[in-house]
From TrEMBL:
Keywords: Oxidoreductase. It comes from the Bacteria. It comes from Nocardioides soli. GO terms for molecular function: oxidoreductase activity, acting on paired donors, with incorporation or reduction of molecular oxygen. Gene3D superfamilies: Luciferase-like domain (3.20.20.30). Residues 10-298 form the Luciferase-like domain. InterPro entries: F420-G6PD/mer, Luciferase-like_dom, Luciferase-like_sf. This is Putative F420-dependent oxidoreductase. Pfam families: Bac_luciferase.
């Protein structure tokens, strides 16, 4: 498996420094999310701070930018990184799109399919100046009188799609260059639920499993750090099938019941050790290395991220240093 990393920082400078440290430790790619920062701006900071590792968004929200803006930002990031950029896109959930960003979320599978088509078509044709005429149920594109005068680093930038449900996962297997999970995907879920859907179209894609990774000499400390991340995902009712698959439906419901008026830090106290052990890589360095090895033969790439939800900055920094140390040991 390729070992990759998702950096954290209170400032963009700290994110960039963490990315550089992970690259020096041997990480083959650095991925940045979109929640508390813009994924594309953070990717620019990481691209400028690194020289070898791929730089990917994991993920950028697909519907809160127009496909043309997404395409332009990807071309700029690929140029800035010297051809190292990977465009990771995800739909987000309905509430995030409609309430936070004021954009429609109807028929997300259709909308994501047409978004990816438009982005790729724009990359292929924007330098020639010919019209782009694309019909679509959700994302038609009509561009006339436009020519991008700058030569692209590439017109075939990889596009990875985030998915957990069957329909979007099948779409990733059909049109994506890769698939990206959220941070709690277990080997069993990957084997039984994800890989059959990804392989439905007979194509080979890069399987990127993301993992919340918490390392400490005391396994109890490592578990406690990861509990807030698990609690964050457990509050999302659409993940009920995911938690039920792991025999954790009752555990999830306890978190949901405690959610009103609580924070990630507060939710951590309602997260069972069984949830943390099943869904995160938490423990000593040897225990974490053993859990990473369980993905061999299932995932092509593993993305290790430190726990962040509900933790003070200094504790996140300590957790991040341990993850980078694990990367260095694995990549020797």
């Amino acid at each position: 498996m390729r070992i990759t990393f998702g950096p954290w920082g209170e400032t963009l400078a700290e994110v960039a420094a963490a990315a550089r440290a992970a690259e020096e430790a041997g990480a083959e790619a650095v991925w940045v999310p979109e929640l508390h920062r813009s994924a594309t701006v953070t990717a620019a900071a990481v691209a400028a701070a690194t020289t070898r590792a791929q730089v990917g968004t994991a993920i950028a929200l697909a519907f809160t930018r127009s496909p043309m803006v997404t395409a332009l930002e990807a071309l700029d990031l690929d140029e800035l990184s010297g051809g190292r950029f990977v465009l990771g896109l995800g739909t987000g959930v309905r509430r995030l799109n409609e309430d936070w960003h004021g954009v429609d979320w109807d028929k997300p599978v259709t909308m994501l399919r047409e978004t990816v088509r438009n982005v790729r078509e724009f990359w292929a044709r924007c330098a020639g100046g010919e019209p782009i005429e694309l019909d679509g149920e959700r994302e038609p594109m009509r561009i006339r009188g436009y020519r991008r005068p700058y030569p692209p680093a590439r017109t075939d930038i990889p596009v990875y799609l985030a998915a957990m449900g069957p329909a979007l996962t099948r779409l990733a297997g059909e049109i994506g260059d890769g698939w990206i999970s959220h941070e709690l995907t277990s080997p069993a879920f990957l084997r039984e639920r994800i890989l059959p859907e990804l392989g439905a179209h007979g194509r080979r894609v890069d399987v990127v499993t993301s993992a919340c990774c918490s390392v400490d000499r005391d396994p109890a400390v490592a578990r406690r750090r990861s509990a807030g991340m698990v609690g964050f995902y457990a509050t999302v009712r659409t993940y009920a099938d995911f938690f039920d698959f792991h025999g954790l439906a009752a555990d999830q419901q306890k978190v949901i019941d405690a959610f009103a008026g609580s924070t990630a830090g507060g939710l951590a106290g309602h997260v069972s050790d069984a949830m943390v052990d099943a869904l995160t890589l938490s423990g000593t360095r040897d225990q974490v290395a053993e859990r990473i090895a369980a993905y061999a033969g299932l995932a092509d790439t593993i993305k290790l991220t430190p726990p962040t939800h509900g933790l003070a900055p200094d504790e996140i920094r300590a957790a991040q240093r341990e993850v980078i140390a694990v990367i260095e040991e694995l990549c020797r």
